[in-house]
Design a protein that fits this description.
14-stranded mixed sheet, 12 helices, single chain
Amino acid sequence: MAIEIKEITNKKELKEFVQFGIDHYKGNPYFVPPLIMDEMGTFNKEKNPVYDFCESVLFMAYIDNKPVGRIAGMINHRSNEKFNEKKARFGWIEFIDDINVSTALISKVEQWAKDKGQKEINGPLGFTDLDYEGCLVEGFDQLGTASSIYNYSYYPEHFEKLGYKKDADWVEFKIYIPESIPDKHIRIGEIVKKKLQLTVYKPTSSKELVSKYGQQIFEVLNLAYANLYGFCELTQKQIDYYIKMYLPMLRLDCIRLILDKDDKVVGFGITVPSLAKAQQKAKGRLFPFGFIHILKALKGKNKVVDLYLIGVNPEYQSKGVNALLFTELIPQYIENGVEYAESNPELEENGKVQGQWDYFKREQHKRRRAYKKELI
């Protein structure tokens, strides 16, 4: 059967692009649908500040006028400048288990990238490090999270058949919450606070969190993530965008900031009660009833917490600041009835991050991969 590839050029087509990414997993118990409004916003060139330095193209595949796949191609020019590369990215990729469909989609983006003068392509990735990253290669029988990709087990097979090789892997853990804080964490926390003159800030006001510390949180994030795979420092417009979009929604008792003697942020732990099951019930829509499920998950008791963003200024890394963060957060998790935390993706070679879980019962339950291919 003939495969038709069509470029997405208007809002109506974009809605179909987004909706296909949800319909494709209908009935799958592990897939967590993204919010349609968030996905639409990501590709809004007037609102998303990534378009100040990125360009993109979207394609959908059809057989007999029925959608059977989709893909986004992207070029992050700031990232290419930082790493001295000519590299395109692909992401938001979904396809039925038909190698002809995946070949048609990926070939289309590869040709687009070559026409733009790019020498390599990799993915699945987003525009930036705060978008979805990595094809799931292990853990297909595990519930996804709101901030990570779920895909069918045949996806890696297709990428490999099409000549893609491993570029980077992320691992994910279930970290089980202990009945009490590990003694070593308590000792380290007290020593660190005294030696480095640090204090712990537990926000009680979203307004204060945003106005007083929002900018500083993302400045520390830029420093802490600077050397991670594919990371490009957030611009001021991006920082403003994320502060406005996300910080006011967060559950305050699941956040801790570490401040120095001058009241400056040197570390942060932004964690969120799992929204996975709530978003499954919402089926991608906030209205008419989806927001109710999400509010219940955010405000009520929840057995799972997502470690959404954790960062420490490099000057304070390997000095016990992470231990201090979790010394403060664990009692809150216990009070909230949390059984385990989802680490979300961590680069497999990032020993500093994974070492902080050594004192907890943990289980590596997922692995995801970014692939690469030279464009000839």
